[in-house]
Amino acid sequence: MDLNIPVIDVSSLRVSDAGNSVDLIAMQISKACQEHGFFYIKGHGVDVNLQRELEVKSHQFFALPEEEKMKIYMKLGGKAWRGFFPIGDELTSGKPDIKEGIYFGTELDTDHPKVKSGILLHGPNLFPEKPEGFKELIIDYMEQVTQVGHLVMKGIALSLGLDSNYFHDRYTKDPLVLFRIFHYPYQSPTNDELWGVGEHTDYGLLTILKQDGNGGLQVKSKGQWIDAPPLENTFICNIGDMLDKMTGGLYRSTPHRVLNTSGKNRLSFPLFFDPGFDTTPQRIKNIDTSTIDDYEDRWDKESVHEFSGTYGDYIIGKVSKVFPELEKRVL
Asked: How many CA atoms lie within 13 A of 10 on its CB side?
């Protein structure tokens, strides 16, 4: 049984006449999504220098005094649900995570209709003033990785025998893009009860994760926890609950967790490329499989296949469990 998470070169998806290369990518994605729910990608086109500078600036930010970081505290972001949170503020399965971080999303000014309507998860970001130039790096990075999201979803569509624009035309023309920068302090390897982030699955279609060089990510593949180590200039992609729902369980959202025992401060940079807030994810009709529902084995004991409604309904219900104190202030 192969427990290695595959590395897929997606560069041919960026070429209009790639031919057989695209067919091979589709086959590789299909296999990875059915066997692991995770895969690495290379050939993604995101500038390497941008990635390195983002790491440098992120280390500088998290090294700042707490009072400086709290200038962009999430409670100041209101319904946009953006900004900094300190260690212990974010929960997974009701337990505090051993990490701090910053939440970002698509930048919308206060005159945008969704912001004026008070819709959650929409609005302006709280960008830190220090270090200098951090804001511009974050915006540039989000734009480049969002394009990777469109690219990979094209490959996922082809892997399911669909038109390459299937997801774009129905769900991701205006995707809900949420970006996080997480800092995990060093943890003792003898205390495996204090997870950087506990076992969970992601909510949407696709997560595109940049890791630093310190490791710590673990994936529950085929019933076994395996390491997903960092590989130079790759992103690790994993599918979320909505793609699980839309494929009837053919592509399974896979549990994962983080334990930082590297002896160093760990950074990770997940970008969540999700269905549009107002879209209603539906089962893909041409997939010949009965629904595979594993809710009894899931970390949260909940079935993603029983949910009906908009993606916005789904994610608000989930995020409010992660920050219960913030939920009381904005709902």
From this structure: 28
What is the tens place of the pLDDT at every residue in 49-60?
999 999 999 999
Which residue from 292, 268, 80, 299 is spatially nearest to 180, judged by alpha carbons?
A: 268
Q: How far apart are the first and last CA of the chain?
A: 47
Among candidates 39, 26, 274, which has minimal Cα distance to 149? Answer: 274
Amino acid identity of residue 291, one-letter, is: T
Give the domains, in start order, of the chain with CATH numbers: 7-330 (2.60.120.330)
Compute the CA torsion angle 284, 237, 187, 130 (nearest 10 deg): -110
pLDDT digits (tens, 9 = 90+) for 277-308: 999 999 998 787 665 656 556 556 667 777 88
State yes or no: pLDDT of 93 exceeds 90.
no
**Which two three-digit tokens encode residue 196?**
């950087």
Place of tokens 């060089």: 213
- 263: tokens are 């002896």
Per the structure block, which two tokens stand in for 9?
Answer: 């070169």
Q: Where are the alpha helices (DSSP H) in 17-159?
A: 20-35, 48-62, 66-69, 113-116, 134-159
Do residues 79 and 185 lie in contact, with contact meaning Cβ atoms separated by under 8 Å? no
Question: What is the spatial distance between Cα 77 and Cα 81, in angstroms, rounded to a whole number?
Answer: 6
Question: What does the alpha-carbon distance between residue 176 and residue 279 come to, in Å, rounded to a whole number?
Answer: 10
Element (H, E) at 182: strand 176-184
pTM of the model: 0.93
Return d(Cα 118, Cα 84) in angstroms, integer: 21
